[in-house]
Amino acid sequence: MSMSFDLGEGSVRVEFDEGLYPRDAIYGAAYVFIDRCYVHLDRVADKRIQVSLKAKKPGVDSQALAGEFQNELLGQAWRQKIVEDNRQFVETITARALGGAAGPPGLDELLSMDIGEETAFDDPLGIAMSWEEKYKKKGKTSDAKSEGEAAANTETSGGEAS
Amino acid sequence: MTQLFTEVGQAAKAPSGLVPFRFREVGGDYLLSNFLGDWVFVTKDEMRSLARGELQTGTPLHDKLASKNFLRDSIDAAKAAERIAHKKRFLNYGPNLHIAVVTLRCNETCVYCHASRANMDAVHTDMTPEIGEKVVDLMLQSTSPAVTLEFQGGEPLVNFPVMKHMIEYALARNRAYGKELEFTMVSNLAMMDEEKLAYLIDRKVQICTSIDGPEHIHTKQRKLVGGNSHREAVKWIERINKAYIDIGLDPTLYHVEALLTTTREALKLPREIVDTYVSLGCRAIFLRPVDPFGFAGRTAQIVEYDRSAYNEFYRTAVEHILDLNRKGEQVLERYASIFLTKILGDEEPNFLDIRSPSGSGIGALAYNYDGKIFTSDEGRMMYETGDPAFQIGDVFSSNYRALMKHETIRALVMASIRDTQPDCVNCAYAPYCGVQPEHSYRTQGTIFGRMRESTTCAVHKGIQDFLFGKLRENDPKTTEILRRWTTVRARTHFIQASSAS
User: Fold this and answer.
1) Does residue A90 belong to the interface with chain B, where contact is any CB pair within 8 Å?
2) Residues B21, B35: Cα–Cα separation, whole Å
3) Looking at residue A127, what is its pLDDT?
4) What is this model's ipTM?
């Protein structure tokens, strides 16, 4: 049996197969109810999860509560599947949106950077990067084994480029 | 459609050669749309053929699908990539709209007030000049080459000195930035006077107001202590429009913009509302449904309604607008214009609530009177009614890049990518649509939204059903009118002279 219900007065216990619904979807669906219900999750058997919803206010229709939870669970599971299928698309659009809005880091950001032993060789602007590495000129990029080496090459490479 | 596949039965198979497409029944035919936003109508018989995998080369159906980029072999990949990049080019820029709430004080009381007004003695809700300067500083740091500073309230004319200060400060500071800078003020106009008007005209501030329809409905919904809110608004609309003519501007392009908030009362008067707007010289009518923010959340029993009633109102009003166009009146409906611009061409009007991802944070920022910064004006309204979910910083301690990379903005971007949301992923209107995640959060408790139950989705689907219904009828005169509604005439007068040094 994939799913079972136990309806009480203003409360509902739903038990289902964890293999059918991803755990993150269960958390997501349960979370949506926390403003109007007390929510409890439990493992009642191997691969069986039970969600208990108890309405905070009286007069709630248990049947409707159970139905709403099932719909929310399906929505969460489906959204998770769609996002997984399109992860690269979402990441590309998000990165482009945030990058476009924020613009490149400026002097203020560099000045406010925490520069310690571990971060001293970070190069967020790519200013220590060789011309070849930056513009992917053939034959040179693979020579730069570290950012330090790349920085050392910058002057010579620049000369070659011109 | 389910019925159609049942009819086809075991003969149904995956169509070969077709790109993935979405479909929707409109007016007895099927509308097909693809990832490029191209669309085509096919008959039920043609759809049946597609479902059976019977698409033959050389047939009218094959040619029709090929011409609209539904067949893989006939797509020019480079051109397709170019078109997608063009449509999504708004992602290259940051927020262009910066909403400054210069006060919460307001001299009118509206049944649907979204702004959470304060009484006229609540002077502590006035923005200070110092906060105003910090708002301008942040605005000018936007990566967008064009920025608009929009003054809102409350009633912004209540705090006119700070508004003036921000305008002068922005003009001075922009000499170093050289951005295309515009100013807009959203006002009920009841506190306007000749001196203020002269300043606003001189500084090229666009003026926008609210008209709820004929006088009796407007005054019923918008109470002005000691006066008539409708008469004040109309008097100043006429005066401002004359001022534009006096300085030599084309009245068809330069006039006061007015916005409608469609309440339950307004649903009864679709034609009268259109006629009121036309009589005031308005060339664009935005038939916006009531929002669930601010006081409207509390007065929902008075102002709210079922969205099917709204869709009926919308259809009647726009049919009337189309009739007026056929008689030579140049007037359009703004929702229709936004959708049609995407449906009939590759342009993106960048209306922040109807694009994907939405403009929350990355397209607009709202600054409260106290300096708190929000992802949108709706997010600010929610803060005023007790929910700070969309506050991302304040003008005292936030830096621009940190604001744009704020985790709330990241979440809102991901939540408003329509191609990855249940329901939207299968919706034929996905290429043209968008949603405001703050609205989903306010009405459904989740920024992702459940579109099947969303009032925004119901409205967007209703409008697009109507528009595609019209396009399917293919009446040349109507199609030409709809096409004309997508024409953009830039109001360059309102752009401040750029003089970056």
Assistant:
1) yes
2) 7
3) 73
4) 0.80
